[in-house]
Amino acid sequence: MLKRILSILFLTLTFVYAVTNYSLRGVISDASTGEDLIGAAISVDESSSGTFTNSYGFYSLTLPEGEHQVTFSFMGYTSIKTEIDLSKNSIINMELISSVIALNEVTVTADRPDNNVSSTQMSVAKLDIKAIEIMPVLFGESDILKTIQLLPGISSASEGSTGFSVRGGANDENLILLDEATVYSPSHLMGFISVFNSDALNDVTVYKGGIPAYYGGRASSVIDVSMNNGNNKKFSGRAGIGLISSRLTLEGPIIKDKCSFIISGRRSYADIILKALPLDMITNDTQLYFYDLNAKLNFKLNDDNRVFFSGYFGEDVFGFKDIMGTSWGNTTFTGRWNHIFGNKLFSNLSVIYSKYDYGFKLSDQISMSSGIDNYTVKEDLTYFPNPNNTVKMGLNASRYKFNPGRLITGTDSSDFRLIMDEQYSLESGAYISNKHQITPLLGAEYGLRFSMYDQLGPGWIYSYDDDNVKTDSTWYDDWETAQYYWNLEPRISFNYRLTGQNSIKASYNRMAQYLHMLSNSTSGQATDVWISSSTLVKPLIVDQFALGYFHNFDDNNIETSIEVYYKDMQNVSDFEDGTNIMFNDKIESQILNGKGRSYGLELYIKKKFGKLTGWFSYTLARTEHQIENINDGDWYPAKYDRSHDLSIVMNYKITDRLTVSGTWVYYTGNAVTFPSGQYIIEDQVIPYYTERNGYRMPDYHRMDLNFHLDGKEHKRNYTTAWDFSIYNVYNRYNAYSIYFRESETTPGDMEAVQLALFGIVPSITFNLNF
Amino acid sequence: MKKLLLIFLIALIALASCEKVINIDLNLADPALVVEGKVIKDSLAQVLIQETTSYFSPDTQRCICDATVIIQEDDNTPDTLAHKGNGMYQSTSMYGKTGSNYQLTIIHDTEIYEASSYLPPEPHIYQLTPISIPAFGGFDDSTGFHPGGRMDTIPYLIFIDMYDDPIEENYYLLKYILNGEDVTSGYATSDDEGAENDTLNYMRMFSRFYLSDTVEVKAYAVDRGVYIYFETLNDVFNSNPIMSSTPYNPHSNISNGALGVFSAMSVDSKTTIIMPALPTFPK
Fold first, then answer.
1. Residues pairing with B106 in the sheet
2. B38 to chain A nearest CA, in Å?
């Protein structure tokens, strides 16, 4: 298999040219802000040949000498068609003008109007940040992680949560990148609000299958989020006041067209409001807030060199000064250097730092902490040999440090302390892939990723007996490899155009994941802990096969797709019964590995233009695990298995100023374990369980509405907008969890109690652009 | 601003989560045997045998009265226990002895269930030390924050110092009895991993006491199988509705799918009265 792939790869690189060819390259950006347009299309001579801009807005094409008609287009922007007489290698930097009509439309995917049919990539969605802002959401906080849960194949972990499962994968199998830096815990406020402040974002792309070789490290999906570079034309800003938080974004040129910045902040103010209320409970010592800060600087040194620095810093704080406090948050930093070698080779060198930590303190008597951090260096090259091939290759290395948990009491070193060993590791990889238009009708993207993982010293590596008692220990020095894993991960996808407006796509990818999150919940909590693959904890390996049919109607206004997938998972993990997740230094020995499988059908219909826009998505799926010692070794449904998952999103533009948006979601309840009997031991009623995840939570459904009202046009240089949102319009108390207790009315009998989190939640947000 | 406040208050009310009793159809599992067997030092061996019943509307009559129950101490002659009524079987001559192994055999409906348990040497509690934890309570009204415990008084934790044989692996069950009543149902559990030299210091964070309480602590020495049963039993009980792991049946030391436990145990106890002016945590 490998040999065959490599030989195809090399074949494509050794093209022979009969005529003189020249390259055409440049950067495509927004005319009003100078922001790079990611995935903008460059098509030549009205043929299917052409290319797309990469994540830096850069493109390169190689064309025969002579006259060409080149079209530059991007969704929501007016296309530019231009005649080019190519007689030497040329640079054309194009600025596209945002088309007014598109401003308030919800668009997911499509850069070329027929991109969903024509691109090789399947199982992918691109979110338009402007469109996310008018979606109705909990507390009025627009949120990319909630919006993607409305897409087929992506299901929310629980009510109001930013946690999600992609095609039967667990919450920790999603690689969430912010300017290439991994975000380990992408949520605030117990998971109800994501760390992504839409004002600071440029582009969000979600991969749930056919994942390109460029990405690695997680088994199920990639959420690639890039921050705005900052307006390099003029100084501008945005502000918003919402129910939960307020936001302010400032951006502008430092040197016009050369150097720009953006800084965007968000802070919640529950504590400030609560302090203003006459409540005994709240005092000046009360701390209850979260904040985010996104900042980016970019320098365009010349046509061949650009440098970017971006960072994110966010934290949740909850506590009472000096008495107790808990806080958690992410920090990321990315430094990048883009360089163009010659005309056809685009290089990006990145240096990345990312950290998540959690802390708890009870006066100075008890403190707890856990976390993870990593440093990454990566080099990515994109080579544009000719219009039919785009070759990507790269190398990367990440050093991780895991702090699985420490509990310290008192201030004296003789006091009780429980410090779990820190873990260290190195994850590295190399990849090569080619996007190849084989014939005008057949396109392919094929690649291979080689991933390696070293669990490193310093530290003790233990072995355990069947009773989880440590039997042996070995010391490893700094940087000494205790356990080594490697995987070859092929990634292949094909697109075959049937007629103009429909196509068939197929893909296969293997993903390996070396990091694991220990969690008791499906949705992700601040206290969740990341651990390394090790001698005992095996890397998760997932093979995914997907097949899809894509058809557009009404001049690409209506996109439809149907996809089926099958996933085979090795080393899915679950805990032994009764495993304590926090401060358990034997946890490695209590993780059980087994097999998993997931398969499903996804339907998607989307209307892109006109007064009424929106989409319908439906997923029929099944996800099961088989782990020795669990459920007698039989297959059982995973916690996040959902049979049916339906989302309807509609936006209707009533007048030029008023847009109403509504969403309705319906899904089958998660699989849960309920008792099938009871008995009494030591005078306590004990539930008797006969099978794992054998029951279902009640079905979930909910409708949300949002009214987006643009302010009247002002002569001054600012615009305003209001968003009125209603979450859970018909006030349905959906079950968040079900537990059992002795009946209050009939002592001796048991009863089931359903816990619901949110009834109807109205909210209001005011937005200002200047 | 006033409006914003109002909206915020509305949101807070909406946020207050809602509980509701609902109807769920649960399967009725085939009845399984439930065994509670005890051989306590210097007490007569006894075994209670019942069966599982419907979860929501349990039958009151669930005892197994027609089983054959046999206990053998080491290689001595097996003793068949007599049925005393309501599923309780008791020996007339077998008293628990430290250092002995007990083998339980139950024959019921042609099925055979077996378990064994070792009766460890007696534990010994050196002393009980109540220690106050101001951080868990005792705030004046200005902070109004009371994370656990009563609002007006400072809670005490009771630290237990007990002997632990450093050569053997030892397992203990502990019970706090407040003014004559069990504080927790079942037992707290501890292995001896935290022991230093020959002393184990144990404290249960969630059992809090107040001034002038009379607290008796009982410590039982058990074998590993019994310890694991009660540890997993506690885990099943302490799970909360929002963040609990997948529920399961406690790990029984009895074969053939029977639930419950067969435990041989020896016991020691000590009593303390919580007096003012005791040292403050940390020591």
1. B69, B113
2. 11
Contact A756 B20 (CB under 8 A): yes
* Whether this model's pTM surpasses 0.80: yes
Same domain, B48 and B94: yes
Same domain, B158 and B207: yes
- Give the DSSP H or E segment for A382: strand A366-386
pLDDT score recorded for residue B3: 38
| Residue recorded with tokens 């690409």 | A556
Question: How far is residue A614's CA from residue A661's CA, in Å, rounded to a whole number?
Answer: 9
Q: Total structural domains in chain B?
A: 2
The pLDDT tens digits along chain B (283 residues) read 333 444 444 444 445 567 888 888 888 888 999 999 999 999 999 999 999 999 887 877 678 999 999 999 999 999 999 999 889 999 999 999 999 999 999 999 999 999 999 999 999 999 998 887 766 554 443 344 444 444 456 778 888 999 999 888 899 999 989 888 887 777 888 888 878 888 888 887 777 788 888 999 999 999 999 999 998 888 887 765 444 567 888 999 999 989 999 999 999 999 998 877 555 554 4
Final residue of a structural domain among B87, B118, B149: B118
Residues B144 and B95 both lie in one domain: no
Query: φ and ψ at A487, to 5 degrees?
Result: -145, 145
**Whether B160 and B92 share a structural domain:** no
pLDDT at site A279: 58
pLDDT, tens digit (0-9, with 9 covering 90-100), for B197-233? 888 888 877 777 888 889 999 999 999 999 999 988 8
Cβ separation B8–A243 shorter than 8 A: yes
Instruction: Please report the number of interchain residue pairs, chain A to chain B, with beta-carbon separation below 8 angstroms.
Output: 206
Residues A154 and A156: their CA atoms lie apart, in Å, by 7
| A543 CB-side CA count, 13 A | 6
Contact A362, A319 (CB under 8 A): no
Task: Using alpha carbons, list the distances in angstroms from residue A166 to A150, A163, A516, A696.
Answer: 11, 10, 16, 19
User: Is the CA virtual torsion A578, A584, A589, A592 positive or negative?
Assistant: positive
Give me the domains of chain A, ranges plus CATH numbers: 2-98 (2.60.40.1120), 124-769 (2.40.170.20)
Nearest-CB residue to A684 (from B51, B147, B185)? B185
B247/A675 CB distance under 8 A: yes
Res A96: pLDDT: 87
Check A365 against B10: CB less than 8 A apart: no
Q: Are residues B107 and B129 in the same domain?
A: no
Half-sphere exposure of A555 (CA within 13 A, CB side): 2
SS3 B154: coil
Interface test with B, best of A279, A326, A679, A738 (most B CBs within 10 A): A679
pLDDT of amino acid A19: 61
Q: Which residue of A has its CA nearest to B8?
A: A243
Q: Is A556 left (phi over 0), alpha (psi -120 to 50) or beta?
A: left
Residues B109 and B153 in one domain: no
Task: Tell which of B71, B86, B118 closes a domain.
Answer: B118
The answer as to whether B143 is a domain residue is yes
Asked if the structure places residue B226 within a domain, the reply is no
Domain housing B82: 33-118
What is the reported pLDDT for A64?
Answer: 84
Quick check: A737 contacting B, CB < 8 Å?
yes
* pLDDT tens per residue, range B37-49: 999 999 999 999 9
The CATH number of whichever domain residue B145 belongs to comes to 2.60.40
- What are residue B224's phi and psi, to 5 degrees? -65, -40
Q: Is residue B253 part of a domain?
A: no
Q: Say if residue B66 is in the same domain as residue B92.
A: yes
Q: Which residues of chain A have pLDDT under 50?
A: 1-2, 6, 8-18, 100-111
Chain B closest CA to A729's CA: distance in Å? 12
Q: Is residue B191 part of a domain?
A: yes
Torsion over CA: A623, A629, A633, A636 (sign): negative
